[in-house]
Amino acid sequence: MISPADTDHRFADPAVDTAPWWRQATVYQIYPRSFADADGDGLGDIRGIRSRVDYLAELGIDAVWLSPFYPSELADGGYDVADYRDVDPRLGTLADLDDLIAALHARGIKVVIDIVPNHTSDRHAWFREALAAGRGSAARERYLFREGSGPDGAEPPTDWTAAFGGSAWERVADGQWYLHSFAIEQPDLNWAHPEVRADFVHTLRFWSDRGVDGFRIDVAHMLTKDLSEPLPSAAELAAMPVDGTHPLLDRDDVHEVYAQWREVFDSYDPPRTAVAEAWVASDRVPKYASPESLGQSFNFDLLVADFDAAQFRDIVAHNIALAARSGSSSTWVLSNHDVFRHATRYGLIGLPATDEPGAVPRRHGGGWLEAGADQALLDRTAGERRARAASMFLLGLPGSAYLYQGEELGLHEVAEIAADERQDPTFERTNREQFGRDGCRVPLPWTAEGPSFGFGTNGAHLPQPAWFADHAADVEAHDPASTLSLYRRALALRHDLQAAEELTWVETHRADVLHFARPNGWQVVTNFGAEPYALPADAGRVVLSSAGDDGASTGVVPGETTVWLARD
Ligand code: GLC
Description:
This protein is of the alpha/beta class and 568 residues long. The protein has three domains: 20-117 and 193-486, TIM Barrel; 125-179, Oligo-1,6-glucosidase, Domain 2 (Oligo-1,6-glucosidase, domain 2, Alpha-Beta Complex), CATH 3.90.400.10; 506-566, Immunoglobulin-like (Sandwich), CATH 2.60.40. Helix content is 25%, strand content 12%. It contains 15 helices and 17 strands. It has a seven-stranded parallel beta sheet with strand order 8-7-3-2-1-10-9, covered by helices on one side. The protein has a five-stranded antiparallel beta sheet with strand order 11-12-13-17-15. It is globular and about 75 Å long. Mean pLDDT is 91; it is low at 1-14 and 355-374. The structure holds alpha-D-glucopyranose (GLC).
């Protein structure tokens, strides 16, 4: 077993020494309102994160990505931003944030923050001004106001639906309607407006000047829109190709915005980085990931894949090739704040796939409970075992790995949230048919004992289930077989494994086993099947196993397990 001390020769390869930090970084996503609560109001805060910096350093991550911490009425978990250049007073102050950035930097951890440019909150000064100024005013030009259809304009301009359900248009007191692609409280900005463009440049500089290292760009494919009349119907929109010319999605002209941002990023030393959250067709991804645009773009393919060797292999091969087209590195994600935790997704295997008739929706956004499925369908142990195997597979890949808070504790999705405690707008906007994303946003368990499992001193803003005690960080930290211990060991070893961005597949003669080689003799073998897999005699020494039996290799990879191998 290699201990962290043995990995001091990290980045021994000169090419990797000089590579930008983000290319193979492990980035840990923090959802600030659910991470740690220092002031006891039930809501996580900046000083709470500050108090856990040692935990982050011990985990061995390279960067944190902070989901929005800005002033917000929380209509969409903070993605409704009322002021892009401040901290929500319930979460702290700008001084607290400066202090957090300094503490993370002192431990060699970079800081990436979320920028939400498609829409503001309806509490943003601009939107309030737009409402007060009335129709035809310059203030309304910053948003997408239109007259309604039908007699007296009492019907929305079109039949478009919002991402969280219901109409994408909302009527204001004087009778005009505004577009909101997401919640009613999230009016879409007009990206044809020069003031909108200038203001975001100001925001990017504001945070870059404060020492922020990079930005995650929320729904990066939706900013620019063509709302020229006549507006198409929803059916017409759905029939249009998304090839750069679609009125609402993935328009080529959005890259004019990012070219301007690139100038901002590159005016800093080191250049600031960005990663696009762009749900676009694969062949459109390189545009966002190119060095002239945002530089990196999320690949969400593993988020929607089964725990399946063929799917994983295709996704990896495809995305490495795709990243090469833009010169970027690939990004790997199994969980984030928008989807069911992967331990739960993988614990539901055996249920029909989402596209089969009568299927239980169980993946992106929605959920399996609302379809009437019984919680007993979830195999928790199998889900966790597969999640550990998939995570160790992911951490062995070239490129950057994005982890979501709590996955290192092996957390499952929380199902036990009463209707009146749910916060995600999806729930009410779908007439309570879809539960939405609260289950992956429940505040973390830090201790097995104490109020709110050590999250804070005074409860948590979403209810924590009793089984959180088994996953508390303090329990797992002392258990060598825990998921936390596994992640810590993997991240300590990962820097050595990442000497260059190379991957070579090794033949296994088993359709359910994947084996790839990395630089310096490192290899990763994942057995997706149930039957044990005998390693080739010359494979090397097992230094890590997702089944938790490091070093005790018998030359066999158990079912649903990943091992990392090193050559002496
Ligand atoms: C992104 C965020 C999601 C948010 C939406 C609207 O998809 O990840 O949480 O609800 O954008 O801002």
